[in-house]
Specification:
Length: about 140
């Protein structure tokens, strides 16, 4: 019984220290990177505390899944912002920046079902005003 208790405490500590992703905070503004995220579900609002859409994106060699409320269309692709130094500081998908058509226009293609490219804010190739993107990120962080 003692081994089970110690194992449970050890697993919980490991999960909280190395695996848990916090909700996004202003910390992600220190080292932000932007990538492509795809909406994988339609809007649902009947679940308690979890209204919105599911999305996924590639971070390094890992596929990250998230959930966020917003004006999303299933199957479309949007900009995702995350902390490039520590993904545990959170990430969010920006509903105002649908980049599905821009990906084709700029010849950005999937690599094994996911986009493995990321940009810093000045290097985002799409024709959005960079200050609008930065403003939108800050507004999402304030409302969290």
């Amino acid at each position: 019984m003692l081994i089970l208790i110690i194992s449970s405490i050890g697993w919980t500590a490991y999960y909280l220290k190395y695996k848990a992703i916090r909700p996004p905070t202003v910390v992600i503004l220190e080292n932000p990177k932007y990538t492509v995220g795809q909406i994988t579900s339609g809007y649902y609002g009947d679940r308690r505390y979890a209204k919105g859409n599911d999305f996924e994106f590639r971070y390094g060699d890992t596929i990250r899944n998230g959930h966020q409320n917003g004006e999303f269309i299933q199957g479309r692709k949007y900009l995702v912002v995350y902390d490039s130094t520590n993904i545990r500081n959170g990430y969010l998908i920006l509903d105002k920046f649908d980049i599905t058509d821009s990906l084709e226009k700029y010849h950005i293609h999937k690599n094994y079902d996911y986009y493995d490219i990321s940009w810093s804010l000045p290097n985002i190739p799409f024709k959005y005003d960079k200050s609008d993107i930065e403003y939108e990120v800050k507004m999402h962080l304030r409302s969290e």
